[in-house]
Amino acid sequence: MKKLSFLILLMSLCFFLSAQKPKKETQTDSLGRPVKTGWNFGAIPGLTYDNDKGLTYGITANIFDYGDGKNYPNYRHFIYAEGSYSTKQVGTIRLFYESDYVIKRHKLLIDFSYLPDAMNDFYGFNGDFSVFNHNLEDKNATDYLNHAFYRHKSNLFRTTFDIRGKIHGGFYYYAGIGVLGYEEGRVSLAKSEMTDNQMELFELYRRWDLISDVEEKGGWHPYVRGGISYDTRNQRVNTVTGWYFDLFLTYNSAFGELKDFNNLKLNFDFMHFIPVIGDRLVFAYRVATQNTIAGKSPYYLDTYKNELYIDHNRYYALGGVTSVRGLMRDRIWVPGFAYGTAELRSRILNFDMFNQHFYLGMNLFLDAGIVTQKYEIDEAAIREKVDSDAWVAANNLTFDDFFDTKANIHNPHFGLGAGLKLAMNENFVLSCEWGMPFSKQDNYTNSNFYIGMGYMF
Length: 457
Prior knowledge:
Layout: H1 2-13, E1 15-18, E2 39-50, E3 54-65, E4 77-86, E5 91-99, E6 106-115, E7 120-121, E8 151-168, E9 171-185, H2 201-207, E10 218-231, E11 242-252, E12 263-277, E13 281-295, E14 336-353, E15 356-373, H3 379-387, H4 390-394, E16 413-424, E17 428-437, E18 448-453
Antiparallel strand pairs: 1-2, 2-3, 2-18, 3-4, 4-5, 5-6, 6-8, 7-8, 8-9, 9-10, 10-11, 11-12, 12-13, 13-14, 14-15, 15-16, 16-17, 17-18
């Protein structure tokens, strides 16, 4: 009930303004709804929620230019801006721009982001191979160590420039450049929060050489990208019908001490949208994968999902709102992975308010993810390092408290859930979703709750 009340409060805080004096709308779209023209502005002052990030406060703005309305709900220009910080010390400073009208016959995509995360999740490598024991960070448990045992610092600076050009029909090519800059390390806690023998799993991985000295602090990685896509979706955000797929390569470069971490990653993403009852009920499904096909990737790039269009501020690997909902963020940390979603989307009520078009909808979903590439870990060598670690022995822990050698790393991970959507002008979408995992190793709370923007895809 508290979560429902919070969602209602969030919706009541939203304000929507139009950048020009409303005009009498005589045009209608393919579904018979009046179209929007000119510049339209939507903002959320203040609050979103995610079990992984906590309560986020700040402001998010979406600015759309629909021009003369002939292509509504598609737009001429789109600007997204966000400044926010969460109770779990996750920050966002972001500016994103998209337009088909800057470079002739091309779509231009630009992103500038600084995404600090002082308490990013770190549950170890290879999914179920790494044992998760919530008691180690539960102050009420007898074997409590500290509340940040499964956390580490991971600050990301991102700059991207991408263009899309048409080949023929629904086929397009993509090309882009960018820079990913990571600052990695141990969490910074106040003295009052630290225990006498403060330790995190991240630091243990470093001591056991599962994370090398040269990659432990992060680094800068300029990249180049190229690929193709096929897109017949009727619109990008609230898609009713059509297909989409993309296939692209990203070469991440590295220099200095990180010179051995140049790598090439392959991404494939496929989506299909099927109208069941007009735009009132739509079945959507998706399959996506990312794999390292050449070179060696630093551990922190393995949890970053490459995307041609950046809908979410930060994409994580398997686990969380951008991949498998219900799982803890980054629960499955591997060099290669695949995931899929089957989702039923409904439009319950259409209405107009503040001279804007709204609808209230629901969605039901089933998410799944699997490991396609794992870290090659010498179990005998790691066992020797763990068993000879003085800190491990002093806390009555053993190798088996951290690693499960009998686990099948390639077993699928599932999340099941439902959500509510409040959309304005087909493109500005408030989202509230709840997801539960099938395995307690994937989430000790048995569910995750998310309030944010948009659909997953």
